[in-house]
Amino acid sequence: MPPSSNGSLFSLEGFITYFVFRFPKTPFSSSAAVAGRRDYCLPAALLLALCMSFASSGLAQVQDKPQALIHKLSDADPTVRGEAMRTLETMPSALVVPKVLEALNTADKDSAMRLVKVLVHHPDPTEIEPLIALAKKYDGLGSEVFALLGAEGARGLLSAVTKNCEAKVGAKDFPAWAGETASGIGPKARAVLKEQLTGEQPCVRKTALYGMAAVYRIRDANRDELEEAAELVIARLADSDGDVIETAERLLKPEEDGGRRYNATVEDFAPERLMKFFNAQKDPALRKRLLMALAAYGDPSVQEFMDHLAGDSDTAIQEIAQNYVPPKYEEEDRVHYTESPQSGVTPSEKAEEIEHLRQSSNPLDRVSAAEQMGKSGDVLYTAGLIELLKDSSERVRAKAAEGLGTLNEYFEDAAVRWTGNRENSAPALYAALEDHNAKVRAAAVTSLASLFPEYGSTDEIPAEHEQVLEKLMALSRDTDHEVVKQASLAYAKFLQPEDAARAIELLKNADPDVRMGAAGAIAHSGSPEGVKSLLALLKDPDKSVRCDSGRLLWVMIFASGDGNQAALSAKLEAQPLADALQDPVITRSQILDLLAASNDPSATDLFLKEVESSKGYSPESGIRIIANSKRTDAAQILLRILRSGNYYGGYQCLQALLNLKDPSVVEPILAFAKTPQGAWINRDQVLLAFRDVRLIEDLLDRLKAKDEGERASAARELAEYRDERIVRALIETLKDEAWSVQYAAAASLGKLGDAGATPALVAMLDYNPGAAALALGDLHGVETLPRLAVLLANPKVPNRKEIVAGIAKMPEPQAGDVLGSFVEKTPGRDCDLDTALAQVLAGLHDARVIPTLQRINFDGWKKDGCYTARIIAAQALSQRGARPFPEEKEDARVP
């Protein structure tokens, strides 16, 4: 249909605009051409004749047209409904509104939804009562029309409250629905609500309260509005009507579970104003009511206020204040780590005590000093502990060695612990490994190991890695049992990937802790030779070792990276894994994953047997392992799992099969889908995954389905096929009544890349310019750029950000020129649009967009400029090595 500048299809201006844009154009002024422009116009006589013909014929027919169009809104074809709706939207309100309101009386919910969409384009005060009746009948349907009626809509809602005070709109009480609806209309409507907060009728005041409390939901509500809303709601605690008071108390109550801490609400501004209002009151009952409302908040200022009131002369106030316990707000679990080791944090009295003990001649005092230094968390004591490592007393030296480890362990963050005072501590502890006392040697080797992460670099020990291992190996043959154990554990911890053979040898150690340490080093090495050793540990006499080796074997195989997984999996033997399944201490799911990864055929059979027999086991990870294994029989294994009847793995198995892109699985999957066990499988999903042409006919039929979501998904999925019927069907679907379907159809046409869809998409610019522009951009329809430029320049056009994105998809030189021209010629652009412009221009590589980015950056520095757009533009300019402002601007930061 032709466009209209004033919402009327039959306005003269709209008619002229239509013909100027749609009909072939003839040069009108040679002087204009000389001036460097080309202006076009219809010959005046032709235009006048057409206008007169239109006026005499079109207007004569329009009198009975709305009723016929309204009837088409119930048509089975969504494109017929869509065209009828758009035609009604462009017709004069005086003709449309009475017919629509009449139709609403008998309309079912689906038809009523379409009639409301028509009314959105024809807001009129006569609609208020019928829309209120509609909202009560169909759960608030029609609320969006009130947003277009301004203050008059708010007054209409409030005037209806008295007789509907006990009514319901869906699950909401009528006053709550009316107040929240009025609040969203705009500032003028909220002014009406403020007036009615002191109105004569209690139900009206309650409705106004709901409206004020809903201000926080309004996207552009500023802090001043939220503060004022809190004050107005609090003031109603002094209302003369108990129902109004109860409503105010309920609206001021903080949300449970600390919800109010995650977004600004009226409650966030309530505590301060409750305290202020309380201080201004003399009435005991009101003061008690206000304090009880305040007691629901846990802000620090509330605690201080309650402490002050604990001595109030009113015993009721005293009782509330004295019994006040700040409510706890649940927050996300967070681990707070120390950022760095602190120094000088020991209180002076404590520091003096430690120093006194350190200088004491009594060894027990010096032991106490070393212990307190280690526990202090103060890195200044590192030097003192190192000094005590030279003490004449063996007990002091042992406690000092222990203290250096404790001092580092004090810090919660492991990364900090390993770098805190290691540079000084590690050499000192390494030297202490030569101490003649076994307890000192044991403490030194334990603390030295604690300074370093497992299998990490030991560069800060003043010895080569090989020397460190030799030293620890020598200590592992020490005469003292504790030194032997701690040295062996440190030896395992310091092994590197290339030391896998040493780790395997260490598995012979009699101590189970050492064997576990060695197993960790083997798993870290990623060496295929280590797989057999870890499999053998699944039979270890110590149950902790068996349990840990199963976990480490799993980590070794699946955390090693894709490059090494195949080589490791090839070493997995079925029998040790089968035996491990019978061991209750070994994690069963990890063993099943290892069976799934094994290339041993008997391992695969055992895995499938377990999947089929274990109804409580979810084989999701095993399915993922098999799907990613690149095995030639992966598809057949997955089909067996799918047909196994294992409830938990069905969906994951189907997804894995679809992702294989193996056409041979289509028929087996569809055959299984016909069985009772496979009835949950979506046949269309399977066919679409393999682009099976059998689905095309179904998708074409679904373009006319009753459900909007079904039509939209069909429009999207048709883009995966190439069939001569598809483009024609999608072009027709562009006229669908639902925006989601229009968007899906347009996007698919853009993806299909058929230029034959261009005329239909150009026509779509009249009613869904965003979707049409995006699709035209995909088609690179540069011939449509002038029309897109006109729409972009019109502030009344919706979805201009999508028009920007559509233009940006065109070839860069043309796209940059259009967007640059718009920015240059359009001052006072809104921030959202400027941000969209900056984002798309930043993604273009053509150097000609630089001046436009400079202009956006420059405009962003003005008093009312857009900060977000400025930052995006500045970053894009910086990445290109361009100056941030136009050449002619000497000081861009001056508004």
Can you summarize this structure?
By secondary structure, the protein is an all-alpha fold.
Show unreliable segments: 1-64, 257-263, 330-342, 412-419
- Could you tell me how far the N terminus lies from the C terminus, measured between alpha carbons in angstroms? 45 Å
* Count of alpha/pi helices: 53
Largest beta sheet: strand ordering: 1-2
Task: Kindly describe this structure.
By secondary structure, the protein is mainly alpha-helical. Helices cover 62% and strands 1% of the residues. The protein contains 53 helices and four strands. The strands form two sheets. A two-stranded antiparallel ribbon has the order 1-2. Helix 14 crosses helix 16 and helix 35 runs parallel beside helix 37. The longest helix is centred in the N-terminal third of the chain and has 19 residues. The two termini are 45 Å apart. The N terminus is likely disordered.
Keywords, separated by commas or semicolons:
mainly alpha, extended, disordered N terminus, two-stranded antiparallel sheet, 895 residues
Secondary-structure map:
Blueprint: H1 12-22, E1 26-27, H2 30-34, E2 40-41, H3 44-62, H4 65-72, H5 78-90, H6 93-104, H7 109-119, H8 128-137, H9 143-146, H10 150-159, E3 168-169, E4 172-173, H11 174-183, H12 187-196, H13 202-213, H14 223-235, H15 242-252, H16 270-279, H17 284-294, H18 300-309, H19 315-322, H20 348-358, H21 363-375, H22 382-388, H23 394-409, H24 414-417, H25 422-432, H26 438-450, H27 465-475, H28 481-493, H29 500-506, H30 512-525, H31 529-537, H32 543-558, H33 562-569, H34 574-580, H35 588-597, H36 601-613, H37 620-627, H38 634-642, H39 650-660, H40 666-673, H41 683-689, H42 694-702, H43 708-717, H44 724-733, H45 739-752, H46 758-764, H47 769-778, H48 785-793, H49 800-808, H50 812-825, H51 831-842, H52 850-860, H53 867-880
Antiparallel strand pairs: 1-2, 3-4
